[in-house]
């Protein structure tokens, strides 16, 4: 689909979505004259390989939707986990209060201490991931923001912060960190397009102002 006009240039039912299938459909469109300056797609290998085979000089940028979705899902999961740890700690505290009345509170003290420690760690991790997610979503991957070069450093910082917390929840944080690390240039490619457009606008404005000044000088 063309993002600007919402025109569907390819909509077909297919049994596979591998390189060959994508390549055949895209080649048919290329023969009809379709040759985009660049495309935007998810990380599907079949799609990207098929496009590379047909338009080897056409870049395929990464769509930020899936990256943001994975980050948000991770943040929600960890927040729910932290809330669950709080619930367990509260239940143990109530049990402790009842046990103390019968002089049996000592039996739950170790469990309660562990529950409090687990809650603190879960809350801290959830808050850290939410901060990183909001930063990535609202600043680094937002269309409104700095130039491409200025986005790369904070992007890499977020990736490193995720890496440093993988040991706390490897099978949840690891895949998200891996995806962000491998697709940085694709995901930030839109910022390079914006930089080029802004440069063209600035150059056009400068030329227009220079022409106006020259006209005034002639008058």
| E-strand count | 2
Which of globular, elongated, flat, extended, rod-shaped describes the shape? elongated
Helix content: over 70%
The main pleated sheet reads as: 2 strands, parallel
Order of helices and strands: HEHEHHHHHH
What's the structural domain tally?
A: 2
Structural class of the helix and strand makeup? mainly alpha
Strand order of the largest sheet: 1-2
Please, how many helices?
Answer: 8
Mean pLDDT: 89
Distance between the termini: 51 Å
Strand content: under 5%
Q: Give the uncertain stretches in residue-range form.
A: none
Rg, Å, rounded:
26 Å
Features of this protein?
single chain, 219 residues, 8 helices, 2 domains, mainly alpha
Detailed description of the structure:
- This protein has a two-stranded parallel ribbon with strand order 1-2.
- Helices cover 73% and strands 3% of the residues.
- The model has no long low-confidence stretch (mean pLDDT 89).
- Strand 1 (39-41), helix 2 (45-54) and strand 2 (60-62) form a beta-alpha-beta unit.
- With 219 residues, it is mainly alpha-helical.
- It is built from eight helices and two strands, in the order αβαβαααααα.
- Helix 3 runs antiparallel to helix 4 and helix 5 packs antiparallel against helix 6.
- The chain has two domains: 19-62; 64-186.
- It has helices spanning 19-31, 45-54, 64-101, 106-140, 148-163, 170-182, 184-187, 189-218, and strands at residues 39-41, 60-62.
């Amino acid at each position: 689909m063309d993002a600007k006009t919402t025109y569907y240039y390819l909509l077909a039912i297919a049994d596979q979505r591998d390189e060959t299938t994508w390549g055949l459909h895209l080649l048919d469109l290329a023969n009809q004259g379709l040759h985009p300056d660049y495309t935007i797609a998810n990380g599907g290998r079949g799609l990207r390989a098929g496009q590379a085979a047909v338009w080897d000089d056409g870049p395929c940028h990464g769509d930020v939707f899936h990256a943001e979705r994975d980050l948000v899902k991770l943040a929600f999961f960890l927040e729910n986990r932290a809330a669950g740890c709080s619930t367990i700690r509260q239940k143990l505290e109530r049990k402790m209060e009842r046990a103390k009345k019968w002089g049996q509170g000592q039996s739950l003290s170790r469990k309660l201490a562990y529950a409090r420690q687990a809650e603190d760690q879960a809350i801290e991790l959830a808050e850290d991931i939410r901060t990183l997610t909001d930063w990535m979503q609202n600043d680094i991957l937002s269309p409104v923001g700095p130039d491409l070069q200025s986005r790369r450093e904070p992007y890499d910082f977020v990736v490193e912060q995720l890496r440093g917390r993988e040991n706390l929840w490897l099978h949840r944080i690891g895949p998200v960190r891996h995806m962000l690390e491998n697709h940085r240039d694709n995901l930030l490619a839109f910022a390079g397009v914006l930089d080029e457009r802004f440069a063209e606008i600035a150059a056009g404005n400068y030329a227009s102002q220079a022409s106006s000044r020259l006209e005034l000088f002639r008058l």
